[in-house]
Each structure stands twice: as structure tokens, then as C-alpha cells.
Specification:
- By secondary structure, the protein is an all-alpha fold.
- Helix content is about 45%, strand content about 0%.
- The protein starts with 16 loop residues before the first helix and ends in a 20-residue tail after the last helix.
- The relative contact order is 0.18.
- The protein binds protoporphyrin IX containing FE (HEM) and calcium ion (CA) (2 copies).
- One calcium ion (CA) binds next to helix 2.
- Keywords: Calcium, Disulfide bond, Glycoprotein, Heme, Hydrogen peroxide, Iron, Metal-binding, Oxidoreductase, Peroxidase, Secreted, Signal.
- It catalyses: 2 a phenolic donor + H2O2 = 2 a phenolic radical donor + 2 H2O.
- Belongs to the peroxidase family. Classical plant (class III) peroxidase subfamily. Belongs to the peroxidase family. Ascorbate peroxidase subfamily.
């Protein structure tokens, strides 16, 4: 299906497509700077389990619990959904029933990454949206957990055609955004891999998280809002946040790529851009296998 995608898919049917998405994401990112990270994680959680088909955008109904309401997706921030819905609303006025929500999400993420300093890459278009979104179909193990051993993560990426190198490059997404205390606190207490002063600061920041589960910490403590290679420079210094971040440095299969990206940001940007292009065509639907959703939060 991915071979049927083209970069000029909407050039006749919706010539303003790219401009409309760019205007929308620019306004949103300026007013809400957490949007870029929110949308990037949303995209990963759409594509990785069952393909880039906007299945994660659908809301639950009286009859079905949608993917969005499965436990691993409950922490997806609303701003990722919101930026897609805003762009889609503007697009329905300009070119009704033409642009898929999955294409909007893929392009919105690309453009948002550029606004925070990330690399530009071409996005092929013509994805269609899923006609199903069921929490019950999201199998255990369809998304990586921070507590998973590196072998398990390598396996999860390999079964979808991603190399170890691509997995490390994609993990560089944690150069922006934040994580809730419950995702890492248990590990901080045994201090394995953490810089002691960083561990102290994390314990302090999270000391009240059971009463206030919204407390969260930047994934990249040095440049939290900038897309750069700082994530990889942090890890060898014990400044990685999640157990899976530290793990990339302890494992001999992934460590060389952490070191490579830590010293060569251009290399990281090239590999990240390539891996994002690959992720963005993973499991796409084309033609009659999908639909152009009228609203991104509901199957037609
Ligand atoms: C390698 C395995 C990965 C694991 C175990 C993992 C795990 C996590 C966890 C636990 C969080 C914190 C969520 C929260 O507390 O709200 C997080 C945040 C995030 N993840 Fe990952 N992730 C992985 C790979 C990826 C990939 C491949 C991407 C994108 C290409 C990505 C993008 C993000 C972003 C942008 C955030 C910050 C979200 C925000 O600020 O709203 N992650 N990740
Ligand atoms: Ca999906
Ligand atoms: Ca950063």
C-alpha cells in the first residue's frame, strides 16, 4: 500500500493542503509550546501498533472503547489531538471530504518538529483512515514500555522492520517533551544509571506524585523544548530519564549509536528523518481499505 502514496497527492484536489496545515500548527505551537511533543508521541502511538491510519484519534462510543482509552494511551496529551482537529476543520472548509486524518497527522508532526529545530523530511500522501478503533485489539506488547529490557524493545521494532539503529534514532524523540513520575520513579530509588544529583532532583520533583499524578519532568533536562542531539549527550552522563533511555547506553547493541548521535547531530538528524519517513508509511491503508473520515474523532 505504501507504494501508492505520492508527495503531490493533493496538488489538484486540495492545493492549499500544506499551507493550511502549516498555518494551523504554527498558531497552535506558539500558543501551546507542548504541542510538538504531544503530536509526535500521538503519531508514534498511532503508527506503531497497527499502522498510520488515525485509529488512535477516534473517541469511544456507547458501544466501543476506542484505542485512545486503552491504558497506555490515557496519558496522550489533548493538544496532539486538538492540533489535528483544528487543521481538519480548516481543511473541510477549503476542500470537503478530501484529506484523510492520517495524512493531516503525518504532515502536522513533520511541520511541528521543524518549528522546534528538527530536520525536514518529505511525507508521501494518500493514506486513508481506519474504519475500526478498538482498545481490545491493541494487544499487550504493541507499544514499548519503559520497563522493557532492551532485547524486548529490539524485538518489537524488528518485528515491524526497524533496525537497532533506527530504533535508537527514533528514541531521540525524547529530546523533547516530558514524562509523568510514575513512568520512572521506581527506578530512581535504586539509582542504577542515574547521576546522583539528578536522582536527588527527580526524587524531590516527584515526592508528591501519588497525591498529584499530573506531576511530570522533562525528558531532556538540558534542552527540553529544542529538538537536538542533547538526549544522546545526556544518557552517558546519567541524565537519561526513563529506564529504557539508560538501557540504550548499557546494551552493547545500542550503545554505539548513542555515542555516534551524541557526537554527530547531523548524523542523528539524517537517521531520524529517514526513520520517521519509514514510520510514517508503516501499515498505511490506501484505496477501498480505508476511508476519508469526515471528523477525525469518529468513524464515518
Ligand atoms: C523506545 C521505546 C520507547 C519507550 C519505552 C517510550 C516510553 C515513553 C514514556 C513512558 C513516555 C512518558 C509518557 C507520559 O508520562 O506521559 C514517553 C514520552 C514521549 N515519547 Fe516515548 N517511548 C519510546 C519511543 C518513542 C518513539 C519512537 C517516539 C517517537 C518517534 C516517542 C516519542 C515520545 C515523545 C515526544 C514523548 C513526550 C510526550 C509529551 O511531552 O507529551 N517515544 N515515551
Ligand atoms: Ca493506527
Ligand atoms: Ca532537546
Amino acid at each position: 500500500a505504501e507504494s501508492q502514496l505520492t508527495t503531490d497527492f493533493y496538488s489538484k484536489s486540495c492545493p492549499r493542503f500544506l499551507d493550511i496545515v502549516r498555518d494551523t500548527i504554527t498558531n497552535k505551537q506558539i500558543t501551546t509550546p507542548t504541542t510538538a511533543a504531544a503530536a509526535l508521541r500521538l503519531f508514534f502511538h498511532d503508527c506503531f501498533p497497527n499502522g498510520c491510519d488515525a485509529s488512535v484519534l477516534v473517541s469511544s462510543t456507547a458501544f466501543t472503547t476506542a484505542e485512545r482509552d486503552s491504558s497506555i494511551n490515557l496519558s496522550l496529551p489533548g493538544d496532539g489531538f486538538d492540533v489535528v482537529i483544528r487543521a481538519k476543520t480548516a481543511l473541510e472548509l477549503a476542500c470537503p471530504n478530501t484529506v484523510s486524518c492520517s495524512d493531516v497527522l503525518a504532515v502536522a508532526v513533520r511541520d511541528l518538529l521543524v518549528t522546534v529545530g528538527g530536520p525536514y523530511y518529505e511525507i508521501s500522501l494518500g493514506r486513508r483512515d481506519s474504519r475500526v478503533s478498538k482498545s481490545s485489539l491493541l494487544l499487550a506488547g504493541s507499544l514499548p514500555l519503559p520497563s522493557s529490557p532492551i532485547s524486548k524493545l529490539v524485538e518489537q521494532f524488528a518485528s515491524r522492520g526497524f533496525s537497532v539503529r533506527e530504533m535508537v534514532a527514533l528514541s531521540g524523540a525524547h529530546t523533547i517533551g516530558f514524562s509523568h513520575c510514575k513512568e520512572f520513579t521506581a527506578r530512581v530509588n535504586d539509582t542504577a544509571g542515574y547521576n546522583p544529583r539528578f536522582a536527588d532532583a527527580l526524587r524531590k520533583a516527584c515526592s508528591n506524585y501519588r497525591n498529584d499524578p499530573t506531576i511530570s519532568v522533562f525528558n531532556d533536562v538540558m534542552t527540553p523544548n529544542k529538538f537536538d542531539n542533547m538526549y544522546f549527550q545526556n544518557i552517558p552522563k546519567g541524565l537519561g530519564l526513563l529506564e529504557s533511555d539508560h538501557g540504550l547506553y548499557s546494551d552493547p547493541r545500542t550503545r554505539p549509536f548513542v555515542e555516534l548521535y551524541a557526537r554527530d547531530q547531523a548524523r542523528f538528524f539524517r537517521d531520524f528523518a529517514g526513520a520517521m519517513q519509514k514510520l510514517s508509511v508503516y501499515g498505511v491503508l490506501t484505496g477501498p481499505r480505508g476511508e476519508i473520515r469526515r471528523r477525525c474523532d469518529a468513524i464515518n
